[in-house]
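Progress against Task 2.4 (sequence-to-structure conversion) is shown through the following example record, which the project officer requested during the mid-term review.
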Amino acid sequence: MASVTAIVLTKNEEKNINACIESIKGFAERILVVDSGSTDATTELAKAAGAEVVFHPFEYYAAQFNWGIENGDIRTDWVLRLDADERFTPELIEEVEGLLKTADETGANGIAMEADLYFLGRLMKHGLANKRKIMLFRYGHGGIEDRKRDAHTVLTDGGLLTAKHNFIHYDFKDLNSYIARYNWYTIRELSDYIDFESGASTEVNTEKRLMRHRKAKFGVYYRAPMFLRCKLWFLYNYIFKLGFLDGREGYLYHWFECVWYRMLVDAKIYEYRKTGKKPEKLEAFGK
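Structure tokens generated for the chain above:
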């Protein structure tokens, strides 16, 4: 096994947790589930699958994950950031094991990779399909940036390697869960936007492509006209980046991601500007 502690954040993930843990058995030396109050069988299933389970009240993702790093008694060389609806494949594990050896030789402290994203059971291949993040970082040399939404893995020093194989991301249970979760995300997005308007820096030491996306979001997208920008974002991804080739699932995915979600964020920004009321603290949302 690799000297890796996998940290998985959960709340009501009984549909996903077994497959998540099973996908990294034989690779990660230790699997630590940080649960924030599941009322289903998540914790029992995680323990039965061989994971350690601890409880910590949820504030937001970055704070929860960083709490796991700081309080998880980690003694491995590496930390794996894995969500309950994500899976490693055997091919990816074999590649990452080689990359860990390369990292030791070159002094790299992080490994980035992309996801094979499934929506309504269909693999998204176009448009907004490319979900990318630094999944592994050397313990003591990285963590999650302190943001409410879209928090990237950041490195304090050292280089970065990139995996060629993708991990699997089943970012969908059903439409009710999807809509409720993304409504919850809009409040966290609003918090980050308020920080941005207040002059907070968006610069972090993360993967270059992730930073280019961040700069485009705050430097281009949020400078476009409110309520129109989401429709332009949809046209860009669905038409020019060929999202329409993913069929009806591709249409629904891009409509929800680009128009519905982004329009709702704009509506909450508009409401905030009118009322001055900031988002309240939220409990963890069971994905």
